[in-house]
Amino acid sequence: MRTKRQIPAIGLGVYKSEPGPVTQDAVREALAIGYRHIDTASIYNNETDVGDAIGDSGLNRADLFVTTKLWNEDQGYDKTLVAFDRSLDQLGLEYVDLYLIHWPVPVLRLDTWRALERLTLDGRVRDIGVSNYMARHLSEILDYAAVVPSVNQIELSPYNYRSRLETIELCREHRIAIEAYSPLTKGRKLDDPVLAEIGSAYGKTAAQVLIRWGLDQGFVVLPKSVHANRIAENFDVFDFQLSGADLACLEDLDEGLATGWDPIDAP
After folding, report:
1. If DSSP codes are grouped into helix, strand and coil, which group holds residue 60?
2. Contact 185, 210 (CB under 8 A)
3. According to the model, what pLDDT value does residue 156 have?
4. Is 44 a catalytic residue?
5. Would you list the DSSP string of 216-230?
6. CA–CA distance from 42 to each of 2, 15, 72, 86 (Å)?
7. What is the DSSP secondary structure assignment for residue 260, as one 8-state letter?
8. Which of 8, 48, 212, 223 has its CA 20 to 30 A from that of 64?
9. Cβ–Cβ under 8 Å, residues 158 and 210
10. What interhelical angle do 206-216 and 193-202 show, nearest 10?
11. DSSP class per residue in 2-28
12. How far apart are the C-alpha atoms of 34 and 219, rounded to whole Å?
C-alpha cells in the first residue's frame, strides 16, 4: 500500500451524521470500541464534532487515522489551499492522515491535485487521494501527477461491484488503496435472505456479512452508523472469513445498485 502508514481496515463514516452531540457521541463510541479510523468531509458539516470527540478520547493522535475531503465548490489550486486550512481548523488537528478530492470535477481537478501535492510538503497532510474516481479519471491523474494517489474511495458492495472492476484493477496495478463507502447499501439490502442465510452459518448479521465481503476483497470498509449497538456490530467482523462458495454467491447479487449519484458516466 502506498500510504505512509497502514490504514485501519474499518473506519467510521460520518456522512449525514447530524452535527453536534449525535456525531460527537458516535465518534466517541467508535473510538471506545476500538475504531481508529474516522472518515469525514467538509460538506458533512461535522468536522468540528469529529475533532472534539477525538480530543475527548484521550487517545494518542499518532494511533488515529483521520480523513477529510475537499468539496466541489472549493476545487482549483488556490481555493483548495484555503479550504484545507479551514478543514484543519475545524478539526482542531495539526495534520490529517488523508485528504481526498471528493468528486472528479471537470476542468478543475488537475489544478486541485497540484494543490494537494503542495499540501504534502509541509507535513499537514500525510497522504492524498481521490474519491468517486472511475478508471478514466484515474488514468487522467496518473498521466499528470507527480504524486500517485494513495487512495480511491468509491461506493462498493456485492450489489455494486462489476461495473467497478476496471477501476479496481487499475487501483491494484498502481498500488492505490481502495476504500468502500456505503458498504451496507444504506440499509436497502439488509433484509436480503441470501445475506441472512450466509450470516447464519457464521453467527453473523447481514451487515457483518457485507462488511466482511469488503474486507475479504482487500478493501478498507467505511460503514456508517450513529447507534452504539450498530457501531459495535459493524466492528465485530474480525473473527471470521467468508468461504469461496459464499463469496461466489455474493458476487451473483450484483445489480449495479448505486445508492447515490453514480460517477460511472461523469466526464
Report:
1. coil
2. yes
3. 98
4. yes
5. HTT-EEE-B-SSHHH
6. 24, 10, 10, 9
7. S
8. 212
9. yes
10. 80
11. -SSSPPPSB-EE-TTPPTTHHHHHHHH
12. 19
Q: Which three cell numbers stand for residue 193?
A: 435472505
Over the stretch 149-197, which tens digit does the pLDDT of each residue have? 999 999 999 999 999 999 999 999 999 999 999 999 999 999 999 999 9
SS3 51: helix
Structural domains in the chain, CATH included, are: 12-255 (3.20.20.100)
Torsion of CA 246, 251, 252, 254, to 10 degrees: 140
pLDDT in tens, 18-75: 999 999 999 999 999 999 999 999 999 999 999 999 999 999 999 999 999 999 999 9
Amino acid sitting at position 42: S
How far is it, in rounded angstroms, from Cα 254 to Cα 20? 37
Which residue's entry shows cell 479550504? Answer: 83
Share of the chain above pLDDT 90, in %: 97
Choice among 35, 44, 161, 181 that is catalytic: 44
Cell numbers found for residue 226? 450513529
Which residue, chain included where needed, has cell 451496507? Answer: 184
Q: 146-185 in b/e burial notation, b at 16+ Cβ within 10 A?
A: ebebbbbbbbbbbbbbeebeebbebbeeeebbbbbbbbbb
Mean pLDDT computed over 237-245: 98
